[in-house]
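Exercise 7. Predict the joint structure of the components listed below.
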Amino acid sequence: MNSETEMLREYTERDYQFGFVTDIETDSLPPGLSEEVIRFISARKHEPEWLTTWRLEAYRHWLTMEEPHWANIEYDPIDYQDIVYYSAPKSSADGPKSLDEVDPELLATYEKLGIPLNEREKLAGVAVDVVFDSVSVATTFKDQLAAQGIIFCSFSEAVQEHPELVRKYLGSVVPRSDNFFAALNSAVFTDGSFCYVPPGVRCPIELMTYFRINEADSGQFERTLIIADEGSCVSYLEGCTAPMRDENQLHAAVVELIALDDANIKYSTVQNWYPGNDEGVGGIFNFVTKRGACRGTNSRISWTQVETGSAITWKYPSCILQGDNSVGEFYSIALSAKRQQADTGTKMIHIGRNTRSTIISKGISAQRGQNSYRGQVKILKKADGARNYSQCDSLLIGDQCGAHTFPNLDIQNSSAHVEHEASTSRIGEDQLFYCQQRGLSLEDSINLIVNGFCKEVFRELPMEFAVEAQKLLEVSLEGSVG
Amino acid sequence: MDWEALLASAEGPPGLATLRRAAGARFLERGLPSPRDEAWRYTDTRFLAQQELQLVRPVIEIDAPDGVHVRPLEEALDAAEPFLAAEAERELPFRLLNTALLRDGLLVEVEDGTTPEKALQLTITTTHGLAVPRLLVAVGENARLTLVERYRAGSGVCLPVTQLSVGRGSRVEHLRIHYGSSDVHIGCVEVQQQRDSFVASHLLTFGGRLVRNDLSFHLLGSGAEVQLNGLYLADGKQHVDNHTTVEHAVPHCDSRETYRGILGGKASAVFNGRVHVHPDAQRTDAQQSNQNLLLTDDAIIHTKPELEIYADDVKCTHGATIGQLDREALFYLQSRGLAHDEARRMLVDSFAAEIVRRIGDEPLRNELTEAVVARLPGMLAEAA
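Solution:
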């Protein structure tokens, strides 16, 4: 163990001693959820009174709600009293000491994805000085951002430093009472990201959670709030192509985006959490509420997602198109192999005039995966000249998988133009034959076809991300043919 | 509305008493659907509970060609047995109510290899009260049948249920036409198709205060093919809700669905089309499309085309569009000297004709072309 690591550990431990305000000795709560737990979390984070009340109200509302079961997914009931809702930031001592202790299968995946050696360690949760590297990288970026007036920090930091912004926007897109999981998140969220881009500023870099300090303790109930002020522009990347070490089974995050006049937000996700073994045991449950509000005229919000991980994905990134001429976009690739289940899609609510939305969804089911697209396009009475185009394609690989499409179109204005198209098919034998005849192996042929199938979505991802995502699909599909 | 009293006082053939009681008990237990049920989200039928409805017997005119046997249900209980066996366990509340009040049923039989020259036409007229007609149709093997159900209603509530069983290699064309005004019409059609059979189903709705149709098609033998055509015209405060389900239970079956709607005034419409491909139903080819024309800003459409697919060697597509008349097409026609109103009528008419022209039987096709032509000017004038 070198001295830097020790310095790091010392630093974290010290930090956390000072962090204590309550006289509770332990740094983790026992499993269970009650008002005390919420007060404890809030107190531990030195939150102002209004936020504690906000959480408690969310909790009280949550108690009156029932877990939704309309999605096309199956899982054993979740015991909400059996979850640890707060544990202090993990010290490096918890993780594996070196790569030798990491699951070899995980390492093989990193190898295939071509992830640099030092990053592999961070991803696998190995506590080494690489963390230092990324901290310093992050600091450099932070200076650069601060110079332009961009605020990009952890959610807890934002609560302390910019309470007026948090208070103004928190819950304004996803209300506390929105749905079961959003209410739960509102009550117990521990951390997340906060970003504010001031008027007229074009964010010079792609913001990544990966570079954010305190990433390790954002926990299973993550809260993200991004505000793009008038005329600003920001691109945000979430997640990572490499499988993350994670011990929490239930993830219920909430993401809120707010775009004011002429603002532009692009939110890209690559999700590759543990999908469970071949029998589907032990995978992550991903119940996420993501919603963006195009508040201003000419604003634009674009969601791009590549979902390959998690045992269960339940996620509908949505756009509320309030401002006139605002634009909402949704590009998605959802892959479910093994016994994964994905029920994902989007909602486009057209409120303003001349609002436009585009939905491109590509579902791939392999082995025993079940993949559902569930979407809603709603055009309200006042939304003159609204336009929507949706395309949902599904690809089936193997005879035990399933692909389903449940679009809802609700139109209340006669000047609307709404189109929905969907198709489901498997990879054509003639296509495979053609590729193989040209000398490609069966696996390469399938990769080629799958990549072509997903091209429209890859195009929307930032360049390096797209390359990685492409590789990720190939790795995830391995073994599903033949 | 006291359903219990209604069920207790209803009369019917003694042979069906057990079935009726069982269906009645299940209906009472489930009650009327509420908007909380996904399938009834946009169609609220709870107002029926506020009404005092008298059970009435509908007037049914029968025009049966040679080769088609039509018998009242009470005289054909044995033959009706396969249709009714599972009726007390159904999910649809109004289908249960129909079974619970079952009295005016007809059993239609077409023997193997029979090909009647003309259509079997049934005209069902209701003017008031609650009517629950039931039609059971058994088409044998390698037979043919054109079946027309024509509903004419003034007011009142009609809950018709039609069950159609199509034998191997048979061809059936089924038309259900609803000429409504201020009535409530909640109907149900269930079709079972055996190997190599072909069914063309045409559902044409010309309004009514509230119209709901639940159609389900079960493709049970390889090589079966079904065509679902639908046209709904509504204006004023009319509400039309069509739910269709196609169950692809076996390999090598085709389904083609085309539903079109024209909505004016403050009309609202719902379309829910579900295609369910079962795990072994390889080589399924399913197409589905729903197109809607909104003539006014107050008209509302909710459309939900669903695909549920559990097999991999399939070709399934669906599409839905909602829009208004193409301005350029209008301009083109006007530039050729047609008046604006005439040009609009022509475009709307051709939109509807796409469905009507699929009807194979010529006299029926003409009847419906005229019905569309008669209905449109009012809708367009209101929208203008």
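Discussion. The first helix of chain A runs from residue 3 to 18.
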